[in-house]
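Pilot study result, target chain (304 residues):
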Amino acid sequence: MDKRYLIYDELEETRIDKYLSQELDLSRNSAQILIKNNNVLVNGKEIKANYNLKNGDKIEISIPDPVNTDIIPENIPLDIYYEDSDVIVINKPSGMVVHPAVGNTTGTLVNALMYHCHDLSAINGVIRAGIVHRIDKDTSGLLVACKNDFAHQSLSEQFFNKTVKRKYYAICYGEINHNLGVINAPIGRDLQNRQSMAVVDNGKKAITHFKVLERFKGFTLIELVLETGRTHQIRVHMKYIGHPLLGDPLYGPKNVVGDHGQYLHAKILGFDHPRTSEFLEFDSPLPDYFEEKLKELRNELKNE
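Predicted structure:
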């Protein structure tokens, strides 16, 4: 059972089924079923789908585990940065899906973890065993998975409270002329294409901070820090400000550069160990294809 806690902090009242649909990325009907089955409490009490949330309301959501027992452990090599009896930190390659989905039940990080670890946290069910956060298929970099429910609960709370340290490196189109920036724009499903996300008026709050690390001819290397964790957040926000990520097949130009997807790498990950409370921080090098592209861009700039 996945437990989530939210505090409604908007001044305007809104129906709880509508709010949960947006906040949890569920259909309105799925949100109503959760409420009908008493999986949602407001201020400790059961409510109905037409309940109007008020500023300060405390919401407790219990999301039932997905039913799926067909995930097969697979002997897939893992680039392990840290491992103990509670957590495992992986440097995920570009091209690897984090958890299985309909039509894609093999070759994922969960398949590999189930083979390597044998025991993983069960809070999110078999299909997301051990996974407390994720990164996109074509995004490379660091990810932590949990081996038991105690660790999973602790890491979930750290992600919810925004105390986990995460820094990404990316190459984007265009030369950003200021050194620091903050993108504060709500993200939701693209009204024109349900397979992608976009900045939309009724979307979820999304904030991305970025810093310019290096400028090239027509491109910029940036470091990004997420204040929120929305689906495709970095990719959507960078497109929104006119600097889509290099190689992004969904949000970038039609003529995609490279065959690795977007040049986006989850470089730094830091968190408090769930059992010892020691702060652990990891830093992974950029993938070879990423470094090769940077070398190419530097040479182009040098030869101008």
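One observation from the pilot: The chain has a mean pLDDT of 89. A full batch analysis is planned for the follow-on phase.
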